[in-house]
Amino acid sequence: MIANLDKIMSYLTTGMNNKIYIVFFIIIMLLFTSSCGYNLSGRGSYLPAHVKKIAIPIFKNNTPRLELDQRITRAVIDTLVRRGKYQIIAEEKDADAVLTVEINSFNYVPVQFTQEGSADRYEIIITSRVTFKDKIKDKILFENPAFTFRSQYDIPEGADITYFDRETVAIEEISKNFAETLVSALLEAF
Length: 190
What we know:
By secondary structure, this protein is of the alpha/beta class. The chain has four helices and six strands, in the order ααββαββββα.
């Protein structure tokens, strides 16, 4: 193959401007290799084609952290809406599939400290039970009794906020990451 490639290049460049043909050859090679079947992560779906309407009741919060269920539910709905392929509805009776989530634990642990001794990075661990059911075929599409999400959150430098305010700001940010991870697991069969 390489010997043939050398012959082709030698033939093309004999008595002509080498740079033009080298650029032409590179462009042709790029065109052939650019369609190798890769696609963007986060855009695929392994759900059955008949699943168009997904009901997402507010997640059940089994933790003492207020509003955790509301923020994470909203983030998951927003993430699915951004994917653009599914209609999110309130009524389970009209849905093709139902996503139910129970948030069973929420841990917010400092992992890095400033020289003054205050935490400036936290690790957040959320464990939940996730069930995604196809109502039409009465089949579980995804189930994980201990879906665990871990992420670290940095407190912005110079932020003058209390511990509880830090936790609230972190939950808002982390809920988006939780949603992306969960939706990818549901749609992309990871």
